[in-house]
């Protein structure tokens, strides 16, 4: 059995321990994660997936009321998302799966669709955060919506237009409780004000905590020269950089992942989580609020070099490779 989201081939003994056919099917479809003990943990839906579902349902309901819609995720999976919609108005709650730390679990998204002569207009209203300052990727005032999430929303709306035979629609997406929920996230520190971010590289939320404890640590310990990575961008490019090695997604659990590894190990991914783990004070005195902003500074190479040199003395068996979102190497252990 192979995980269609990560591409990981589950060991036979893990599959044998999963005695419940329904749970096995959940893992086989990618909507669940099979752990070493045979338990399947459910993946949730991202804010981007929920927003896309609300938008699609709102458009469909211009013709017929609906209680669920099919959404094509950025990962390629097609999922059914519960959404109640009627007369162009839709509402649905974000599903967190078995991820206990999902702050946005249950957050309600609304979408309102209005016919227009042609084309698609996507607007973001109450509870959707906006950048308060320019960053390397976003300008001040732009909604905090990632490109994969926006693409999923536009695709969902286009599918709905095709279904009802219309040529154009304007959809306004909001999350009424988003502003209050956002105060419990990193958005204020990231320069995002007024609400939550609409994100989703794969469209699914991983059950990070339990998945790492039950499965990833076992994979790390058993692997020869494992490559550990922190997120989906790192996962994709790590597989390209190290095609013959086992690449394991560990999220923010860097210390636990590195401690579990035996012998030579590579830590590869985007710089933010990795550099904050290596040097928690890396932003001190720089005048920057985030590692992403620091990465655009001429001082970045020097700061990274010093940080990686110091880390190599502490963990000489770990090679660190930092990449940008295009997959280019922007920092490497000495």
Walk me through this protein's architecture.
This protein has 334 residues and is of the alpha/beta class. The chain has three domains: 12-42, no CATH class; 45-204, CbiD-like (2-Layer Sandwich); 206-332. It is 34% helix and 24% strand. The chain contains eleven helices and 19 strands. Strands 4-5-6-7-11-8 form a six-stranded mixed sheet, with helices on one face. The radius of gyration is 21 Å and the shape is globular. The two termini are 39 Å apart. The mean pLDDT is 90.
Please tag this protein with its features.
334 residues; alpha/beta; CbiD-like; 3 domains; six-stranded mixed β-sheet; five-stranded mixed β-sheet; globular
Task: Summarize the SSE layout with pairings.
Blueprint: H1 12-17, H2 21-29, E1 32-34, E2 40-42, E3 44-45, H3 47-60, E4 66-72, E5 78-86, E6 89-93, E7 108-115, E8 119-124, E9 127-128, E10 130-131, H4 147-164, E11 168-174, H5 178-182, E12 192-193, E13 195-196, E14 204-205, H6 208-222, E15 227-229, H7 232-241, E16 247-249, H8 254-260, E17 265-269, H9 271-278, H10 291-295, H11 300-314, E18 318-323, E19 329-332
Parallel strand pairs: 8-11, 9-13, 15-16, 15-17, 17-18
Antiparallel strand pairs: 1-2, 3-14, 4-5, 5-6, 6-7, 7-11, 10-12, 18-19
